[in-house]
Amino acid sequence: MTPGANIRILPRLPYHGYKDTDYVDGIFSKDHIVKLVFDLFPTSWVFKKGHRIRVSIAAADWPTFDLHPKLSPKNNPGDQANIIPTITVYRDAKHPSRIELPVIPPKPRGTPK
Q: CA of 79: how far to CAs of 11, 40, 106, in Å?
C-alpha cells in the first residue's frame, strides 16, 4: 500500500521505493561516486534568528523498514555479523553538495489568516 493512499495530500508527496527491485547491486561500491538528487518529505518549521539546521544521513530506517538482507541477514541491527556501510558526502569544488530549502516570506502584520 502506498503511504498516504487514504488521505488527500497536495502536492503529491515524493515517495521512494524500498523493494528488492529498487536495488542495484554495487551502485554504492567503493570509489564509485553517485550523484543523488531527491526531494525531501514536506514539512513545516519556523526558523528564527540564530536557529541552525542539522542534516542527518542514515543507511537504514529500522524498524520502519527491514535492513537490507545482504547487510543484515537476520534483520537485527545489533548482530555482530552485520556489514556496516560507510556513507561519504563529497562537498568540494569538483563534487558540490547542497540542500535547497524553500523560504516562505512572513505575512505582513495585520493580514487576515
A: 40, 30, 49
Which regions of the chain does DSSP assign to beta strands (E)? Answer: none
Angle subtended at Cα 62 by Cα 30 and Cα 45, rounded to the nearest 5 degrees = 95
The answer to whether 65 and 18 have CB atoms below 8 angstroms apart is: yes
Task: Look up cell 552485520; give the residue.
Answer: 82
Q: Give pTM, 2 decimals.
A: 0.56
Q: What is the pLDDT of residues 73-97, one digit of tens each?
A: 999 999 999 998 888 888 999 999 8
45, 19 in Cβ contact below 8 A? no
Locate 113 and state its grid cell: 489568516
Question: Under a CB-based contact definition with an 8 Å cutoff, are residues 99 and 55 in contact?
Answer: yes
Q: One-letter amino acid identity for 104?
A: I
C-alpha cell at 82: 552485520
Q: How far apart are CA 89 and CA 57, in angstroms?
A: 9
* Chain position carrying cell 493512499: 5
